[in-house]
Design goal:
The protein is of the alpha+beta class and 137 residues long. Helices cover 31% and strands 31% of the residues.
């Protein structure tokens, strides 16, 4: 998974040493949960959800596997899991103007700007935040 993360051409890490193999293990076993898509024995992509932060920590696809609906399915698995854990909303950040920026907008996430370079997206758990209408008497 580290090889996929380091091979991206957008959302490139400014300091790749900041994301360690131990971090992947921690997000998988302690901080949240992770999902991997495999196609014919090859890891096509992965997604990690951070339960404590109610966020998507990582969603990356290997080159050649974009545009096949795999990322959408991985994201949906992570979103469903976070909402099942009680998250009222989920947050993620990505570099503005990238394919990822457009991807999250197409998935129905609400976009804002964290700063001039970084977009922040949120997705509300409508099942949890919905309050039934009360009848006025």
């Amino acid at each position: 998974m580290s090889a996929i993360r380091l091979a991206v051409t957008e959302n490139v890490l400014s300091d790749p040493s900041r994301v360690t193999e131990q971090m992947y293990r921690d997000y998988l076993h302690l901080l949240g949960r992770g999902w991997v898509a495999e196609c014919e024995g090859v890891i096509a992509g992965f997604c990690y959800a951070d339960k404590g932060q109610s966020s998507i920590w990582a969603l990356f696809m290997a080159q050649g596997y974009e545009g096949q609906g795999i990322a959408r399915r991985l994201l949906q698995l992570a979103v469903d899991w976070l909402f099942e854990q009680g998250s009222a909303s989920i947050r993620l950040t990505t570099t503005a103007g990238t394919r990822a920026d457009a991807f999250y907008a197409r998935q129905g996430w609400t976009r804002g700007m964290l700063n001039e370079r970084e977009a922040v997206f949120t997705l509300a758990n409508l099942k949890r935040t919905h309050k039934p209408c009360q009848e006025n008497t």
